[in-house]
């Protein structure tokens, strides 16, 4: 199951191994809309923007689909991108008036789309075996986690800012395969979960001892 929360409206977007995106009104505790995905594949990622009433879905077949929930069920899919050749790990819609769509597949190709144009406007190649990605909402940073037991942090130009392979300390062991990543919404802090049952917090700031 994948979800995205719209704070301004109190709406919860949900989907998964189904053929619809279901929208719930959490105040009234009721379903308000079903949006057909138009695909035979599962939904792997959701992202929404209340200002533009858009929902972006990444799918297991490699497609990224854009929906306008103000339109009827048969017309609400306004764009489909098919540039990824594998499972979409993350599809993110920047919450700005002219915000872009950023998506990445397990092959490590990060693609930037302008919602009104049919082709990507930029492509960056990151690590293979990608399992998790998060984009910082304020800074021009995104982080990738790999099944090959490392984390890479990039700037918007695709330059590597940092590589993390070991836990802190002189005898720090190798980190496990990465299962999830999340940036702090304001600060340069990154939370990481891995398959060895550890959760770690990394920061651009020096730790006080």
TrEMBL record:
<protein>
    <submittedName>
        <fullName>Regulatory-associated protein of mTOR isoform X1</fullName>
    </submittedName>
</protein>
<dbReference type="GO" id="GO:0038202">
    <property type="term" value="P:TORC1 signaling"/>
</dbReference>
<dbReference type="GO" id="GO:0030307">
    <property type="term" value="P:positive regulation of cell growth"/>
</dbReference>
<dbReference type="GO" id="GO:0005737">
    <property type="term" value="C:cytoplasm"/>
</dbReference>
<dbReference type="InterPro" id="IPR015943">
    <property type="entry name" value="WD40/YVTN_repeat-like_dom_sf"/>
</dbReference>
<dbReference type="GO" id="GO:0009267">
    <property type="term" value="P:cellular response to starvation"/>
</dbReference>
<dbReference type="InterPro" id="IPR001680">
    <property type="entry name" value="WD40_rpt"/>
</dbReference>
<dbReference type="GO" id="GO:0010506">
    <property type="term" value="P:regulation of autophagy"/>
</dbReference>
<dbReference type="InterPro" id="IPR036322">
    <property type="entry name" value="WD40_repeat_dom_sf"/>
</dbReference>
<dbReference type="GO" id="GO:0031931">
    <property type="term" value="C:TORC1 complex"/>
</dbReference>
<dbReference type="GO" id="GO:0030674">
    <property type="term" value="F:protein-macromolecule adaptor activity"/>
</dbReference>
<dbReference type="InterPro" id="IPR004083">
    <property type="entry name" value="Raptor"/>
</dbReference>
<dbReference type="Pfam" id="PF00400">
    <property type="entry name" value="WD40"/>
</dbReference>
<dbReference type="GO" id="GO:0071230">
    <property type="term" value="P:cellular response to amino acid stimulus"/>
</dbReference>
């Amino acid at each position: 199951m994948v979800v995205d929360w719209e704070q301004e409206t109190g709406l919860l977007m949900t989907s998964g191994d189904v053929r619809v995106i279901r929208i719930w009104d959490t105040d009234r505790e009721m379903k308000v809309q079903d949006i057909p995905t138009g695909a035979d594949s599962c939904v792997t990622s959701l992202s929404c923007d209340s200002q533009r009433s858009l929902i972006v879905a990444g799918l297991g077949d490699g497609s990224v689909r854009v929906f306008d929930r103000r339109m009827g069920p048969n017309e609400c899919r306004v764009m489909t991108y098919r540039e990824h050749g594998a499972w979409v790990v993350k599809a993110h819609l920047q919450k700005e008036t002219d915000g872009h769509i950023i998506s990445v597949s397990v092959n490590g190709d990060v693609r930037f789309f302008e919602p009104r144009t049919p082709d990507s406007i930029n492509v960056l190649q990151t690590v293979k075996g990608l399992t998790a990605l998060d984009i910082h909402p304020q800074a021009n940073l995104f982080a990738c986690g790999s099944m090959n037991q490392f984390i890479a942090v990039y700037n918007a130009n695709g330059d590597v800012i940092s590589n993390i392979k070991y836990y802190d300390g002189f005898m720090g062991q190798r980190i496990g395969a990465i299962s999830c990543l999340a940036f702090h919404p304001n600060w340069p802090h990154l939370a990481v979960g891995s398959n060895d049952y550890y959760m770690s917090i990394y920061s651009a700031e020096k730790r006080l001892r």
